[in-house]
Each structure stands twice: as C-alpha cells, then as structure tokens.
Design brief:
It is built from 9 helices and 17 strands. Bound molecules: adenosine-5'-diphosphate and magnesium ion (MG).
C-alpha cells in the first residue's frame, strides 16, 4: 500500500467538547467534526490508525453500575474497556466512513477490539493513583475495598476507587492491525489505551483491573507497526513552554533532546501534556521519524508545516 502511515491519537475533545454536553447526540457532533479532519488527511494520501481515550465514558458506565447495582450485575473494568472500544469505535467508524463517502472515496473502516499486555508485577499495581468512578462516603468505599478495590480519600472531595495505570508492553492484535493498514483499511485500535491483560505461565490471557494511558499505548502501536508519524490530536494547537504563564511561548518544533530537556524542566503538566511528550519521546527513541501535536481543526495545516508542534529526532 502506497502512502505513509500515521497513528492519530485523538483526545477527549474528539468525543466530548464540553462537560455540560455529554449526551450521545453531542458525542456524535464531536466525533463527526473530528472525523472530517481525519478524512482530510486520508484524502492527502495518509494511511491512518485512529486511537482514542475513554476516561469519561468509563466513568459514566461505572456510575451506571453503581446506580443499578440493586438490580443488574456490575461490569468488570476490562469489559467496560471493551464496551467503550466498541461504542466509540462504532461512532468513529461510521463517521469516518460517511465523511469518506461524501468525498467519493472508497475505503473500508474497521475497529479492532484490542488487548494490551501489562506485567502483573508492574510497580503501578502497588500504587494505584488514578481515581475512577463517582465520589462516595467512607462506608461505601469500604464495601468496594472488600471486593478487592483500592480506595482512597481524594483531596477532601470524598472517597473514590483508585486504579493502577501500568505500562503497555505488547499489543495482542498488532498483526491484524498492521495487515489491515497494509491493505488500505482505516483502522480504529487500542481504544482507551487498550484492554489491559495479563499473561499467565502458560501464555493465556486474562483481563486486569487497570487502565492504560492512551498516549503510551498509541506510541507503542506506532512503533510496532513502524508508523511514519505519531499525530497526537488534543485540545491545543501547539505545545507551550511556561504554559499558562505570562511568558508562555508556543513551540513550532523541538528536537528529541529539547523535548527531554523541557520535560525535565517541568514544562508539561502530569496527566495532560506530560504523557503525550513521554509518548513522543518513546516513539522517536524506538526509531520513529516524526511526531506532531495539534488540535483537530489544524491537522491538515499542521501536516503541511503551517502550525502544530513538530518533534523530530534531530
Ligand atoms: P487529551 O484528552 O487530548 O489527552 P489532556 O487534557 O489530557 O487532553 O491534555 C491536553 C492538555 O494539556 C491541553 O489542553 C492543555 O490544557 C494541557 N497542557 C499542559 N501542559 C501544556 C503545555 N506545556 N503546552 C500545551 N498544553 C499543555
Ligand atoms: Mg489525556
């Protein structure tokens, strides 16, 4: 298949633009808007694998579980991951398919439910730091604790379940993803960072109670399929130094060495920009040729070198 391949990691704003507009109709609006921009790059000749987050969607399902617990069985976290890969994948694959058709382009689009291997001895399991689901009182939290969850009081806001975010090591469906891409199919994969799975001594997989960072998983996928570009689409047009400070400086480009230096200087906020920069660094260190960070409306302009923040080995 001619053309270069990009892994496009879309952020939360591709699905929910505004916390007061989370209903499904608004999610469709947001996905259709993002899909238009992704299709513009496909029109320019790119093969694309789309990855996405699922944080808010997992929160909604956990909340639904809590409210319905007296009547319906709860959903384990690995299945919630699979559910969100299916529902978000469905929205993306339909929207991208429609946008392609509008332009008269004949291309197939498919979502791959993706399992990502993590190490059961990953230190992250000893120190779960990511709060998920709703806030609750201590008594309720202790009930979850008895079921095996780690719970913690979160900065005076109430009790919450805490979850580990282990490092992604392997992508089980890597080969089918690559095969589809090589055949010109637009693929949606590693949704929500992938469903975390652990391998036992016999090589069999089971779901893990964890979540994987989608930027990390996207970088791993990009390396494994030898992508030409890791494109991280988020809520900002460019990356900044001194972000939100009076002396803020937007960056057009940085080298791998500069990215590491700025990271060490603390320019990138943990939980938002930092995991993206770490993902970019990991992709470039594994031999990836280039990475780009921008927002959906600027994807095509950024690919043409007019905006966004480009990160390259040299
Ligand atoms: P996503 O859902 O795309 O993962 P995040 O909110 O996790 O989005 O991360 C993107 C956000 O990171 C931006 O919207 C911005 O508010 C924040 N951010 C933190 N540090 C920086 C920085 N140095 N430059 C630009 N944005 C930054
Ligand atoms: Mg994020």
């Amino acid at each position: 298949m001619a053309g270069k391949t990009a892994v496009v990691a879309v952020g939360g704003n591709a699905l929910i633009t505004d916390k007061s507009r989370t209903a499904v109709e608004y999610q469709w609006e947001a996905v259709r808007e993002t899909s238009k921009h992704i299709v513009s790059m496909i029109q320019q000749g790119w093969n694309v694998v789309v990855t996405h987050g699922n944080g808010p969607q997992v929160g909604f399902i956990l909340r639904r579980n809590e409210l319905a617990a007296h009547e319906v069985h709860p959903t384990p976290l690995d299945m919630i991951g699979a559910d969100t890969q299916g529902s978000i994948g469905y929205m993306l694959q339909q929207s991208i398919g429609n946008a392609l058709r509008e332009l008269g382009m004949e291309k197939d689009v498919a979502t791959i439910v993706t399992q990502v291997v993590v190490d059961k001895d990953d230190p992250a399991f000893q120190n779960p730091v990511k709060g998920i689901g709703g806030f609750m009182d201590e008594a309720k939290a202790r009930e979850f604790e008895a079921e095996g969850w780690v719970v913690a009081e979160d900065a005076g806001r109430g009790w919450r379940r805490m979850i580990a975010s282990p490092k992604p090591l392997d992508i089980i469906e890597q080969k089918p993803i690559k095969t589809l891409v090589d055949h010109g199919v637009i693929v949606i994969a590693v949704g929500g960072g992938g469903i975390p799975v652990i391998r036992d001594e016999r090589g069999n997989l089971t779901g893990a109670r964890a979540v994987i960072d989608k930027d990390r998983a996207s970088a791993l996928l990009a390396s494994r399929i030898s992508a030409d570009l890791l494109l991280i689409s988020t809520a900002v047009e460019k990356v900044a130094l001194n972000f939100n400070q009076p002396d803020q400086k937007w960056l057009d480009r940085m080298t791998l060495a500069e990215a590491k230096q700025y990271m060490a200087e603390g320019h990138f906020k943990p939980g938002s920009m930092l995991p993206k920069i770490e993902a970019v660094i990991s992709f470039l260190e594994q031999g990836g040729p280039a990475a780009l960070i921008t927002d959906p409306p600027n994807i095509v302009r950024a690919l043409n070198g007019e905006t966004g923040t480009w990160i390259t080995p040299q």
